[in-house]
Amino acid sequence: MPxxxxxxxxxxxxxxxxxxxxxxxxxxxELARTVAAMxxxxxxxxxxxxxxxxxxxxxxxxxxxATGDKKDDLALVNPTIVARSGPExxxxxxxxxxxxxxxxxxxxxxxxxxAFDPAGREIEREYSGFESRIIQHEFDHLEGVLLVDRMxxxxxxxxxxxxxxxxxxxxxxxxxxxxxx
Length: 181
Ligand code: ZN
Hints:
Layout: H1 29-44, E1 49-51, E2 61-64, E3 74-93, E4 103-116, E5 122-127, H2 129-142, H3 147-150, H4 153-158, H5 160-179
Antiparallel strand pairs: 1-2, 2-3, 3-4, 4-5
The chain binds zinc ion.
């Protein structure tokens, strides 16, 4: 048995968060382990959704759970949002890559998704409400789009210091890594 994977969170402004994620090619054991480890990281971090770039992987995988009930675990591999509809709503979104930062984001209520489950079975479904919101947020990550891009100018101003602190923290971490022999 291979060791279970353990992921740490990738925080803003790590450049991996800005990359376009690449399609998954093999629906194999490694994908199953990756999805399991993503769910573990999401739950341990008290998140409701997580995209692969947030654990440093340039892969089109997202996991979410809108209720906290294990049976509502949803893993989408190579998802595409084929339609968005319904009234646009504002909601205070957080993001595990922006700890402590919440900002109102406007999105349509419903989205229709085509994807595969980790076993390679095709999924086509319409989602609404909170689940649809999480999917749209996580899907943004696969395109390198982040909460900071969706914030209003007023929210960006409100969170200016917190965002700057994340940048400083990242720079310090990179400098420390560079000093290591
Ligand atoms: Zn996010």
